[in-house]
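__Protein archive entry__

___
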Amino acid sequence: MTPLSLQEVRSMLVDHDLDPHGNTILVLVNPETDHAKHNGIDSAKIDVHSSSSMVVCCEQPSGSEEHGGEGVPPSNTQTADSEKAEAASVSYRLKGQQLCLVSRYFKNLFTGPWFENAHFQRDGGIRLYLWEEKWDPVALLILLRIMHHQLCDIPEIIDLSLLGKMVVIAEYLKCIDFLSGFLRLWGLDALSQYRRHIAFGIDDDTVVRDGLLCTFISWKLRLRGEFRLATKFLILWAQAPIHDPRASIDEYIVGALNIERERMLGMVIEPLKTEIRNLARYSLYALQQNPRTSLLGFAASARYVRMLLGLSDLSNLPRVPYTGYNIIFVDRFDHLLENFPGLSLDDF
C-alpha cells in the first residue's frame, strides 16, 4: 500500500482503466504467466473459448480469512523489491469507494488503522499491491468490471477454467455473495458444457480432473443439482482414490467421495470375486466327475470374469481401494449408474 496524490493516480499509465477519475491503483504482482502477454490489452474481450483445456488448478488461498482483517496490517505494503516486481505486473485504475461497497477485503484495508489510510483519507490517492497469489488478470478484470457496474464489457459465456479462477479470487476478496448472481449463471452454463463433453466422449482422467473443478465451483456457489451431478461423475469415473492436489475442496467432501466410490465398486467387484472363488472350488470337485466338461466350463467362465475385470489373469484380484477400476467399465451393472444420485450439497 503506497500513498499517492489524486493527480499521480489519474496520470499514471495502467493496463486497464476502469475509472479515469478513480483514486486507486491496484497492482496484480506476479500474475499468471500464461496471461502476462495480454498486458495492455482489454483482456475481458478476449474469446474465452480460445483455451484448448477446461482444466485449472484452483488453489485455495491459505489463510484468506486473516488477510485484510481489522487487527492485521495490510499484507500488500510496498517493499524494496516492488519496483522490480511491477515490471511483470498488471495494473488497474479503480474507485476505492466502489471496492469497499462490495468487498470486505478492500473495506478492511481502506478503513484499517494504517498510516497509509490517513494519507488516503486526506489526499485521496493510494496504490495497492496484490502479492499473495498468481491470479489470472483476465478473471480479476471481469470481477472488477462487475464491481464497477460495467456490465456491457463482461463476456456472456465463460468456460469452466476461467470461472474456477474467478470463484477463487471472489472468495479471497470476500465478495462472493455480491457476485454470486453472475457467477451462478456462468456456473450453470459452464457445468452444462462439462456434461456435453462427457456425452461426446472424453478420457476418464479429464472427466475426473474437470469433475473436481465442477465440484469446487458448485460447492462454493451452492448449486445443489450441479454439485450432485459433478460428484456422481467423479465417483463413477475415478480409477483411483480421489485426491485434490490443490486442496481447494474440503477434505470432508473428498473423503465422502472416496467412501462412496469404494462402496459402489465393492457392489460390482466383490460378487465377481466370489464367483471366481466358487468356480475355483467347483472345478476341483467337478474335475473328478467329468474332467473335459468342467475344464471347458471353467475356462469359459474365467474368460468372462477376466473380461469384466480387465485382468490378464485371475491370480491378481482387485482389492480396496480398487485402484485402476471405475464403475463405467462394467456394462452389466448399468442399473447402478441409473439409480445413483451423487452426493447432496446439504451434507456439506
The chain is about 50% helix and 5% strand. The CA atoms of residues 106 and 144 lie 12 Å apart. The chain has two domains: 2-173, 202-348. The first strand starts at residue 2 and ends at 5.
